[in-house]
Amino acid sequence: MNLEVHINNVHGSQIAAKITGIFTLDGHSFKFNAIAFGRIGGHNVGAKISKTVQKELVKLGYNADDVINELQQKLVRGDISIPEGLKKESFADS
């Protein structure tokens, strides 16, 4: 699965942050929201996509749960692009 993640905005800190962004799959872009938690128990990310996005993914032949899992893994690993001026260090451990 060739999924790319672009962060649009981050509100919060290294301990907890709300993330909004877009992921691209098969040339189609989809919005997502996520909550990222760090520190206690390690790094965790909970990503959400709308029912409409879920239906579009199914039409493209993807399992929505598999896509969400991949999205969350990329967010945890920092395999993302961020807007100019936003520093990863402001919301993620380096």
What does this protein structure show overall?
With 94 residues, this protein is of the alpha+beta class. The chain has one domain. Helix content is 24%, strand content 37%. The chain contains two helices and four strands. Strands 1-2-3-4 form a four-stranded antiparallel beta sheet, with helices on one face. Strand 2 (16-25) and strand 3 (28-37) form a beta hairpin. The longest helix has 14 residues, at 64-77. The radius of gyration is 13 Å and the shape is globular.
Keywords summarizing the entry:
globular; 4 strands; single chain; alpha+beta; 94 residues; four-stranded antiparallel beta sheet; 24% helix; 2 helices
Structural class of the secondary structure composition? Answer: alpha+beta
Number of strands: 4
Could you spell the SSE succession in H and E letters?
EEEEHH
Biggest sheet: strand arrangement = 1-2-3-4
Tell me the helix content: 10-25%
Estimated share of beta-strand residues: 35-45%
- Low-pLDDT runs: none
How many whole angstroms does the radius of gyration measure? 13 Å
Intertermini distance? 26 Å
Total discrete domains: 1
Task: Give the integer mean of the pLDDT values.
Answer: 87
Spell out the blueprint of helices and strands.
Elements: E1 3-12, E2 16-25, E3 28-37, E4 44-48, H1 51-59, H2 64-77
Antiparallel strand pairs: 1-2, 2-3, 3-4
Task: Provide a brief overview of the structure.
The protein is α+β, with helices and mostly antiparallel strands and 94 residues long. Helix content is 24%, strand content 37%. A hairpin with a 3-residue loop joins strand 1 (3-12) and strand 2 (16-25).
